[in-house]
Design brief:
Elements: H1 2-15, H2 22-25, H3 30-42, H4 69-77, E1 79-83, H5 88-91, H6 112-121, E2 126-132, H7 161-172, E3 175-180, H8 193-209, E4 215-217, E5 225-226, E6 233-234, H9 245-255, E7 260-263, E8 269-271, E9 286-287, E10 316-317, E11 320-325, H10 343-352, E12 359-363, H11 374-390, E13 400-403, E14 424-425, E15 433-451, E16 460-469, E17 472-479, E18 486-505, E19 510-511, E20 513-517, E21 527-530, E22 535-539, E23 545-549, E24 566-567, E25 572-580, E26 583-584, E27 588-592, E28 600-604, E29 623-624, E30 626-627, E31 630-631, E32 636-654, E33 665-673, E34 684-687, E35 698-718, E36 725-726, E37 728-733
Parallel strand pairs: 1-2, 1-12, 2-3, 3-4, 4-7, 7-8, 8-11, 11-12
Antiparallel strand pairs: 5-6, 9-10, 13-15, 14-19, 15-18, 15-20, 16-17, 16-18, 21-22, 22-24, 23-25, 25-26, 25-27, 28-32, 29-36, 30-31, 32-35, 32-37, 33-34, 33-35
This protein binds beta-L-fucopyranose (FUL).
Beta-L-fucopyranose binds near residues 95, 219, 330, 690 and 693.
Length: about 725
């Protein structure tokens, strides 16, 4: 039947002298063409919309804010990578102070092709490189400062990391972007108007000399103290005025018109509001930045709370980018080689970022060789495989699609075609719609992917999906924002019919994609927990066997089977893996501190909360100094008696991670004592760099183990507010 209809239709088109344009098609008997096309659609055959007459309606009108062509292209990248590389790679720091000697930058085997190929193979469509991080060290031979690769021994000062990355991306056919930190802890002029000219000159060099850029990344972090040409002082700037962003953004627009500008508040894309890579849901691509005084927004001057979800029906098209590192920190360090995210975890991230309409910017930091470390390579390889496996079969393909209403130029069956140009749209005046898909055969899947033709704005506000089971439609998943795309995973269903209901829209709802997929099942690695007695518990789903090691080696089929909780009073490393026959999961590995059961708090501020909460083995219970009578400001110290003398190798500070960062300790001093009376100088002091944006466990490593029974942790400075908060303190023993 469908082929008969197609022949009829072709006849009609031939009668119209084979001219495929709409103007010529108007000469064909419109009513016939319309009738044939509707009949064909009913049989699951869809015509290119350019062949269809639009005699019934005006052209579809956009609604609200819409993306620029550069943003449209950016949305379709879905995921790209970040490479944090600097002197920090060689010092182990998270934020360099600015006094690092350029001579320490000396990767032994830097290979941009290796890095780019690993990323491209895993499906990343672009790479952003930290051309200059907060430490001020420039990865290209800039004319603006000597603090660059030109002063390093790498390639005898003749190398250009940015240039090599740009070339490798071009060669492999992925896009390239740059990060240029506004905060510069090295530059003597930082904080004065002169620095702004230096900063713009650096940016100009990057914009002019490295080909087409898809994104330029402006970091909102602005610390305070730094080296600043030897002054070693705190410099504060007004983030909303100092950089005069509109002028810089204009320069980017002129020199790189295809580049999207990232900052906390856009204008090209916005920060998702956390460094966990997790977008809110809904995650609207539109955003009306709110500033405290109602003035126009500037980075660092916005309401962070609304970033994860954006603004429903917001004023500007400023979609979210979810930036996150594959490791706990942004820079490579050997101690984090065992903390690389597993492929399964990367899949979760993918669903929570790309799957909610954001773009995923995954940081994969090169190591001291200038390569992606083997552990990261292994994880990315499997992640890429899982994605390819998921997208290998679209169960909706070949379906028959019906809508309760459709524009004649935007029939329902268009949702099966690739790209945003062909879409289904409900008839004029409608604010709801229903699409029914009859699949070619009964099939099993658990993921639906929907997308709006966002060139016409983000229109849909609420939708639900029903599946046909036991002779009726039953609710399966529901959602709010769709925009560039949404991926929702529901229960695994076996059916031949689904119904997508657009329950609320601001303008005629439109969809350019409805597709169905099956997420590959990955064997779950064990989870680990520990109490203050130093008892470690491992858990895995039923039917799996857990094997573990305590000596740092990888658990294999010969390793002991986990049956009872493991007692590790002195702490140590546990590595574990699930097994089903010879099939294995990824390895999880964790370093545990010594038990705290016999610890006692000797002194600490206790008006607001019991200081014992800092050593109770429970990260959710907080010791803080925000009393009912008011905030008790830093410095605040806690002195702990560990009950026995042990060789202290490192001390952990766990910040709160309950959604706010108020009171999080930014800088500290650490003292050790054998008798609790004689303390001497601090054995360590410093800052917890980037702890506000990335509140992960901080490890203060001592140059060498020191025997001690008592420690004193002093919080010198805290984020926002005027009190301090400690979720947990721990000690690692030398073993
Ligand atoms: C933050 C920086 O402070 C981190 O070091 C990192 O570069 C991250 C992407 O942005 O604001």
């Amino acid at each position: 039947m469908a082929s008969y209809l197609f022949v009829c239709l072709r006849e009609e088109i031939l009668k119209g002298s084979l001219e495929r344009r709409r103007t010529r098609l108007a000469m064909i008997t419109m009513s016939k063409l319309f009738l044939y096309s509707r009949l064909m659609a009913a049989f699951g055959v869809c015509l290119p919309s350019t062949l269809l007459p639009a005699f019934a309606d005006e052209a579809p009108q956009p609604y609200g804010a819409v993306p620029t062509p550069a943003q449209l292209a950016w949305h379709d990248m879905e995921m790209y990578a970040f490479a944090h590389f600097s002197t920090n790679t060689f010092t182990g720091k998270e934020w360099g102070y600015g006094d690092e000697s350029p001579t320490i930058f000396n990767p032994t085997n830097f290979d941009a092709d290796q890095i780019v190929n690993v990323l491209a193979d895993a499906g990343f469509k672009g790479l952003i490189v930290t051309a200059k991080h907060h430490d001020g060290f420039c990865l290209w031979p800039t004319k603006t400062t000597r603090h660059s690769v030109a002063s390093s021994p790498w390639k005898n000062g003749k190398g250009d990391v940015v240039g090599e990355f740009a070339k490798a991306c071009q060669k492999r056919g992925i896009k390239f972007g740059v990060y240029l930190s506004p905060w510069d802890r090295n530059h003597p002029a930082y904080g004065t108007p002169k620095y702004i000219s230096v900063y713009r000159a650096q940016l100009r060099e990057l914009l002019e000399n490295y080909g087409d850029l898809f994104e330029v990344w402006f970091d909102g972090a602005n610390g305070g103290d730094g080296f600043y040409g030897g002054k070693r002082e705190r410099r504060s700037i007004d983030r909303s005025t100092y950089y005069d962003w509109p002028i810089t953004w204009k320069m980017v627009g002129e020199l790189q018109p295809h580049a999207v500008i990232f900052s906390d508040v856009g204008p090209g894309c916005r920060w998702v509001g956390n460094e966990r890579g997790v977008a809110g849901y809904p995650c609207w691509a539109t955003y009306s930045p709110r500033t405290s005084d109602g003035s126009s927004p500037a980075p660092g001057h916005c309401d962070i709370g609304i970033l994860p979800s954006g603004t429903n029906d917001g004023k500007f098209w400023i979609p979210a980018e979810a930036d996150v590192s594959i490791r706990p920190g942004w820079f490579w360090r050997a101690s984090e080689n065992t903390y690389v995210r597993t492929p399964d975890n990367l899949m979760d991230l993918y669903f929570c970022s790309v799957g909610r309409g954001a773009c995923l910017n995954l940081n994969v930091p090169p190591d001291q060789r200038g390569l992606i470390h083997e552990n990261d390579v292994a994880s990315l390889k499997v992640f890429g495989k899982l994605l390819r496996q998921m997208y290998s079969k679209n169960y909706a393909s070949g379906a028959r699609v019906h809508a309760d209403s459709e524009r004649s130029d935007s029939p329902a069956c268009n949702v099966l075609k690739p790209g945003r140009k062909s879409f289904w749209m409900a008839q004029n005046g409608r604010k709801t719609g229903t699409l029914t898909l009859e699949l070619p055969e009964e099939s099993e899947w658990d993921v639906i992917r929907l997308a709006e033709p966002i060139q016409l704005g983000q229109r849909i506000r609420r939708f639900s999906v029903e599946v046909w089971l036991d002779g009726r439609f039953v609710p399966w998943v529901e959602g709010s924002s769709i925009g560039p795309r949404v991926l929702l995973q529901g229960s695994l269903v076996k059916t031949q019919k689904i119904r997508v209901r657009i329950d609320q829209a601001d303008a005629e709802p439109a969809l350019c994609e409805v597709s169905l997929w099956k997420r590959p099942v990955v064997m779950k690695a064990p989870t680990m927990s520990r109490n203050k007695e130093g008892i470690i518990k491992l858990a895995a789903p039923a039917g799996l066997t857990i094997r573990y090691t305590l000596d740092g080696s990888e658990p294999g089929p010969q390793s002991p089977i986990y049956r009872d909780p493991i007692s590790l009073p002195n702490g140590g490393r546990v590595a574990a893996r699930s097994f089903r026959g010879m099939e294995t999961s990824e390895v999880v590995s964790e370093e545990f501190p010594v038990e705290t059961r016999s610890w006692k708090v000797i002194s600490a501020e206790n008006q607001a909360a019991d200081p014992a909460r800092a050593i109770d083995g429970d990260e959710r219970s907080l010791w803080h100094t925000h009393a009912a009578s008011g905030e008790l400001p830093p410095p605040q110290s806690i002195v702990v008696d560990m009950g026995r003398t042990i060789p202290v190798a490192a001390v952990y500070y766990v910040p709160r991670h309950d959604g706010t960062s108020r009171g999080t300790v930014k800088s500290y001093e650490l003292y050790l004592s054998q008798d609790g009376k004689h303390w001497g100088k601090p054995v360590a002091q410093g800052e917890f760099s980037n702890i506000q944006a990335n509140p992960v466990r901080q490890k203060i490593v001592l140059a060498q183990p020191i025997p001690a029974r008592f420690f004193r942790f002093t919080a010198k400075d805290a984020v926002e507010g005027n009190h301090i908060v400690v979720a947990e303190l721990g000690v690692q023993m030398a073993y």
